[in-house]
Amino acid sequence: MITLFSGANIAQFNNCIHNFFYFMLQNRNILCISNPLWEGDYAKTIVELMSIFARQNKVLYVDNPYTIKDLADGLRGKKKLPVKRALGLQKRLRKINLANQADVYVLTPPVILTINFLSKGALYSNLLKLNGWLVTRSIRKALRQLQMNDKLVNITAFNPSLGLVTGRKFNESLLIYHCYDAIEAANWMKKHGPWQEEAFMQMADAVITTSQGLYEKKKDFSRRCFLVKNAANIGLFSAVFSAEPARQNTVGYIGSIDDRVDYELLENVISSMPGTQFVFIGRTNYKAGEQKLRQLSNVTLAGAKSLQQLPALVSQFSAGIIPFLKNEFTKGIYPLKINEYLAAGIPVVTTNFGYLAEFENIVSIAASAENFTQMLVEEIANDSPEKRAARLHFAQQNSWEQRVEEISDIITLLEQQR
């Protein structure tokens, strides 16, 4: 019999997970009310996890609802969104066939009111409840249509606002909050996100975090808090693995060009290596950073690419970099890209932005710009088939399949205690 742990014993409870034999949940109904949309041009933790869960379970993935403001921007051509589906003029519920021979059902909820600009108070609270009612009604309809009401697990991913007004509304056996980022750093959530997250963590049966930094921040707000780190699509990236180092002198970065990146460090490093081409692949969310990079002659901004396009591009890199700033926000990051680089076999140089002890023997962790440049030059010069094989082996321990097995074990353990 498993003892229920709480309060000061959370860490002891969390450690119990590692005494279990991992297996993947089977023949269950999983509702995922998510923040990120299913489709997109970048890798998303929750999408990767639900894609694996869908192999042996029925998954309903609920996209974050569009607001009236989003709809107006879409109608004016300022934002790309499925207007007809958002308005219910096309079927809201879609069946998507995945590459792994599984299916996932994706629901586009009705358009909701734009309320984030309002201050906390009665008006905001009532309108939030109205938004929750609209979304809940749509989800209930989809659950009935898919016959998913039995033994339902509700995983709400980085969307505490909706979680507060939809949680416990579907007779779910478990309500889990999946936290993969620092909510106080998300611009669109700064006003209400922190207090909503704290309230939702106390409401949920458990919290799952994706990095040691996030775990340390959230563990005292939840009855049960777990650490299940990010991973990578190892099969996708290892398909381009080569034992021989890349011939061209190209350093690459995959990820958003945003305010997490240390542009002062990058300017120093890139200027110090004029004979090396630096390629940045990802969305631009920070114009000031983009402008700084464009001023450097040996920089290429390739823009956003789909996950399926990335491996071929990464295989051309002599090394991959993670040039993040070191602050409270980045302290909570476990970067997806680190295992993607390693699965392709390439050297990795990163700043010491967070909890990276597990990578100390496989990547170079720099303490300064000068140190970063030196490590980058050495990693490229000293790359070898043996080092590349070691990187691939390391990455293979960090697959999404393994993470789904860890979450499956958490779900089983929680249900045994109910």
Explain briefly what this protein structure is.
With 418 residues, the chain is an alpha/beta fold. It has helices at 10-16, 45-53, 68-75, 83-86, 122-146, 160-166, 193-203, 212-218, 234-238, 263-272, 287-294, 310-314, 336-343, 369-381, 385-395, 400-416; strands at 29-34, 58-62, 93-97, 103-107, 152-157, 174-179, 206-209, 225-227, 250-254, 277-281, 299-303, 319-322, 348-351, 364-366.
Task: Provide an overview of this structure.
The chain is of the alpha/beta class and 418 residues long. It has 2 domains: 7-231 and 399-416, Rossmann fold (3-Layer(aba) Sandwich), CATH 3.40.50.2000; 234-395, 3-Layer(aba) Sandwich (Rossmann fold). It has helices spanning 10-16, 45-53, 68-75, 83-86, 122-146, 160-166, 193-203, 212-218, 234-238, 263-272, 287-294, 310-314, 336-343, 369-381, 385-395, 400-416, and strands spanning 29-34, 58-62, 93-97, 103-107, 152-157, 174-179, 206-209, 225-227, 250-254, 277-281, 299-303, 319-322, 348-351, 364-366. The protein has an 8-stranded mixed beta sheet with strand order 3-4-2-1-5-6-7-8, sandwiched between helices. Strands 11-10-9-12-13-14 form a 6-stranded parallel beta sheet, with helices on both faces. Helix 5 packs across helix 6 (160-166). The radius of gyration is 22 Å and the shape is globular.
